[in-house]
């Protein structure tokens, strides 16, 4: 009997690029039956907490809180240098300082919100909204600040907003690690063999996209907030890199740094489990590659 895998991914271009071949069955599903949903990252986080997905893209903040129940796949993550969320302001020359100010964040369990809490603790009142609402509300002056993710990183200047700080650059300066934003997690209730098969399909899909980048445009355009092809591929070039193919020791170290800093700031429980990267099935992939 074919095993059904309820898979959730975000609508951002790096995910639709990575999963294009899986979504269109351009790669072999290896005996699995994927039921795929594309939704906002915070919706993915919320529904993972409700145990609704077998495998899903999630913020590494959420993955940290779900570490007892999930493992991270080696492939499909978004982390790197120069990839961090931007703290934007509706008015130039202002910084978060008082509770009378409002900062919009893209969901309480996003890594972007975790970074704001780490770097600007006890400053403004935080309001969590869908990421696509943040820049329009700043333009309308409905809030003072916003933590911007996805394509808006490339378009904020055109929209007349001011940059307060690149939160990713600050992370890099303090940790000397790439910033871990989000990854693909699998529920521990799945067998190791099933998780290994999912990992191979995800990596197959990513390798297909890297080998034929132009083939991914229709899928990216279908779900993107920003439709310009050059912006879509700029987004991919920023978020899809060697650690998307495999997190490796550098990725694990970045996840350990995130876990430690969140615990020291009291944002997660001290002494709890850290984020584990799944390593089963690697011997089989090596055999496939060498055969």
Could you give a short description of this structure?
It contains twelve helices and eleven strands. The protein has helices at 13-23, 41-49, 60-65, 111-119, 131-139, 167-175, 192-211, 217-223, 229-239, 242-245, 248-264, 282-290, and strands spanning 3-9, 32-38, 55-59, 70-72, 78-80, 86-89, 102-105, 125-128, 145-148, 162-166, 179-187.
Q: What do the pLDDT scores average to?
A: 91
Instruction: Please identify the structural class as seen in this structure.
Output: alpha/beta
Please report the total strand number as a whole number: 11
| Helix and strand pattern | EHEHEHEEEEHEHEEHEHHHHHH
Which stretches of 5+ consecutive residues score pLDDT under 50?
Answer: none
Helix fraction bin: 40-55%
CATH class of the largest domain: Alpha Beta
Distance between the termini: 28 Å
Q: How does the overall form come out from the CA principal axes?
A: globular
**So, CATH architecture of the largest domain?**
3-Layer(aba) Sandwich
What does this 3D model show about the protein?
- This protein has 291 residues and is α/β, with parallel strands linked by helices.
- The chain has two domains: 3-80 and 178-290, D-Maltodextrin-Binding Protein, domain 2; 86-175, D-Maltodextrin-Binding Protein, domain 2.
- It is 42% helix and 19% strand.
- It contains twelve helices and eleven strands.
- Strands 1, 2, 3, 4, 5 and 11 form a six-stranded mixed sheet that branches. A five-stranded mixed sheet has the order 8-7-9-6-10, sandwiched between helices.
- α1 packs across α7 and α1 (13-23) packs across α8 (217-223).
- The longest helix is centred in the C-terminal third of the chain and has 20 residues, at 192-211.
- The chain starts with a strand and ends with a helix.
């Amino acid at each position: 009997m074919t095993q059904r895998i309820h898979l959730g991914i975000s609508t951002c271009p790096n995910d639709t690029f990575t999963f294009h071949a899986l979504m269109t069955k351009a790669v072999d599903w290896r005996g699995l039956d994927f039921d795929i949903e594309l939704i906002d990252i915070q919706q993915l986080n919320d529904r993972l907490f409700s145990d609704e997905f077998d495998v899903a893209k999630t913020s590494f903040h959420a993955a940290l809180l779900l570490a007892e129940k999930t493992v991270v796949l080696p492939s499909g993550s978004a982390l790197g240098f120069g990839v961090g969320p931007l703290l934007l302001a509706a008015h130039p020359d202002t910084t978060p300082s008082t509770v009378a100010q409002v900062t919009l964040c893209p969901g309480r369990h996003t890594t972007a919100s975790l970074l704001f809490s780490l770097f600007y603790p006890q400053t403004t009142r935080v309001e969590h909204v869908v990421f696509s609402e943040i820049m329009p509300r700043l333009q309308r002056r409905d809030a003072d600040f916003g933590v911007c993710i996805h394509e808006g990183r490339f378009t904020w200047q055109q929209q007349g907003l001011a940059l307060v700080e690149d939160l990713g650059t600050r992370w890099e300066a303090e940790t000397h690690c790439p910033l871990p934003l989000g990854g693909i997690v699998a529920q521990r209730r799945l067998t190791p063999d099933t998780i290994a098969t999912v990992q191979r399909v995800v990596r197959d899909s990513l390798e297909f996209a890297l080998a034929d980048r132009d083939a991914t445009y229709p899928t990216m355009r279908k779900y993107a907030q920003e439709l310009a092809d050059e912006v879509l591929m700029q987004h991919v070039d920023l978020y899809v890199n060697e650690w998307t193919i495999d997190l490796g020791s550098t990725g694990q170290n970045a996840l350990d740094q995130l876990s430690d800093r969140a615990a020291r700031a009291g944002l997660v429980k001290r002494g709890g489990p850290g984020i584990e990267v799944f390593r089963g099935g690697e011997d089989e992939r090596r055999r496939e590659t060498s055969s």
